[in-house]
């Protein structure tokens, strides 16, 4: 009987090695040898599993997007009240700081999306998935009379995601111009104005 292939396990290890290498070194000057060294193998051995560094980074991006979105969806699902769900959505979308591995990874890979359609497609999918999450929360809050939306849900959702992205990018800089609590307070401020709701839990 043929032994089971270790290729899926090895690819998962290479994705993990590439993820850490991107966070440590950045993506713009990243070389295949950098990832191979981190994985403890030769560049030629790495190419057996991935034909190019770009192919490997595509899997890194896909895995990072899924982890990020699943974590956000789980945070929201744990709440039932639209106010709490909106706060959870906002809180789960901002990096914890410049050492937030997952958010740094997504921002780094986002630079490739400027030039590579495949990366851009996944970046768009990430954006749209987050917008849908916000739209669901906003529509549910409006339907129950808790929210009185200042604009249509899609526009508000897009603005919330864009605010998160902007503040998040600043939070991951070498010298952040503000801290996470200030960034979260700013996004929450927009959310309160947009929903005409204090977003506090009912007494």
From TrEMBL:
<feature type="domain" description="HTH tetR-type">
    <location>
        <begin position="8"/>
        <end position="68"/>
    </location>
</feature>
<dbReference type="Pfam" id="PF00440">
    <property type="entry name" value="TetR_N"/>
</dbReference>
<dbReference type="Pfam" id="PF13977">
    <property type="entry name" value="TetR_C_6"/>
</dbReference>
<dbReference type="InterPro" id="IPR039538">
    <property type="entry name" value="BetI_C"/>
</dbReference>
<keyword id="KW-0805">Transcription regulation</keyword>
<dbReference type="InterPro" id="IPR036271">
    <property type="entry name" value="Tet_transcr_reg_TetR-rel_C_sf"/>
</dbReference>
<feature type="DNA-binding region" description="H-T-H motif">
    <location>
        <begin position="31"/>
        <end position="50"/>
    </location>
</feature>
<dbReference type="InterPro" id="IPR050109">
    <property type="entry name" value="HTH-type_TetR-like_transc_reg"/>
</dbReference>
<keyword id="KW-0238">DNA-binding</keyword>
<protein>
    <submittedName>
        <fullName>TetR/AcrR family transcriptional regulator</fullName>
    </submittedName>
</protein>
<dbReference type="InterPro" id="IPR001647">
    <property type="entry name" value="HTH_TetR"/>
</dbReference>
<keyword id="KW-0804">Transcription</keyword>
<dbReference type="InterPro" id="IPR009057">
    <property type="entry name" value="Homeodomain-like_sf"/>
</dbReference>
<keyword id="KW-0678">Repressor</keyword>
